[in-house]
Amino acid sequence: MKYIIVLGDGMADEPIEKLSGKTPLEAADKPTMDRLAKKGEVGLAYMVPEGMSPGSDTANLSVLGYDPKIYYTGRSPLEALSIGVDMKKTDVSFRCNLVTLSEEESCYEEKRMVDHSSSEISTEDAAVLMEALKEGLKREGYEFYVGTSYRHLLVWKEGKVIELTPPHDILTKKIGEHLPENEVFCDMMKKSYEILSAHPLNQKRKEQGLNPANSAWFWGAGTRPNLMSFEEKTGKKGVMISAVDLLKGLAVGSEMDKILVEGANGGLHTNYEGKANAAADALLNHGYDFAYVHVEAPDEMGHQGLLNEKIESIEYLDKRVTRLIVEALEKAGEDYRILVLPDHPTPIRVRTHTKDPVPYLLYDSRKELGSQEEYSEKTAKESGIVWKEGYRLIDCLLEI
């Protein structure tokens, strides 16, 4: 028996007038998911515990079966694990986004958050800009590390956790009231704008029609996590396939293996087939019992408010990931159970995460679990099945 999770980050949404009251998931052409739904179980699961922020960190912990109320210590420490930072117990890490702020205002506080991802900046461009920040913001006790795309890291030695605002929560808004109260952090962010806005690479990006990565933005503070081994917890040998440092960090923290797929970049035009083929190969040829395939694109399209692209990302998830995995396992004659779901909604309307329950689809190749016409938020609600403690859903997948 093989077990698979296909995670469409931020895939869930709300009914949209332009879609005649349908959600992007309902509007998408997704024949594989809908075929599985006809013999599978469709329901709702709360992946974000009451009182916690609806981040991909808390939600993906839940999806993997770790109660965030017990195991969550912050987002960026998980990314630090992925990057290979050896955090001490007294260290505090922060996400360092390379963001785009509006340029017309002379006062930093009056600027608006234009783009939390700087046109999904490439890791190659980001590395050049991060080197400039490392040099220009050099301070004793503060260290910068290069991550992936716009997602990077700052570690504060002997630091303390500071509550800071995620940049994707304030898109189009003035940043002044969301700046850190900590003078050092606020000063570094202001100085980062001076360094980056004048950088030749950003001038080139603007000429190319791309958003300049003209400021650092700190958030997601936390301390070193301490997760139980996934294999010890579940009895299953697992592998993580994702382009995102957060998910790769979850793999490191839970002692799962991870596969790095060439061309996987966390954007709309990622290497979908590469992820699917890597999962199938790991399960069929390398002794893995469980594969977690994470696709970031629906979340990014939700943050950017791009409706057609969000629908397209869901269709890619169906045709270029889910279908290929299912076909490979069926061709090999392998019994399998597959769970398809988002970690949280990222509605086009609000362009950020919400803590509403997510629709899930559970399919078992050996037997019928239920029957729904399609996989969507609507059919999930109509099923009447609700997991209040979403972190327990994986036990149902794994038949624990």
UniProtKB/TrEMBL annotation:
Keywords: Glycolysis, Isomerase. Signal peptide: none annotated. Gene3D superfamilies: Alkaline Phosphatase, subunit A. InterPro entries: Alkaline_phosphatase_core_sf, ApgAM_prokaryotes, Metalloenzyme, Pglycerate_mutase_ApgM. Belongs to the BPG-independent phosphoglycerate mutase family. A-PGAM subfamily. PANTHER family: 2,3-BISPHOSPHOGLYCERATE-INDEPENDENT PHOSPHOGLYCERATE MUTASE (PTHR31209:SF4), COFACTOR-INDEPENDENT PHOSPHOGLYCERATE MUTASE (PTHR31209). This is Cofactor-independent phosphoglycerate mutase. The lineage of its organism: Bacteria, Bacillati, Bacillota, Clostridia, Lachnospirales.
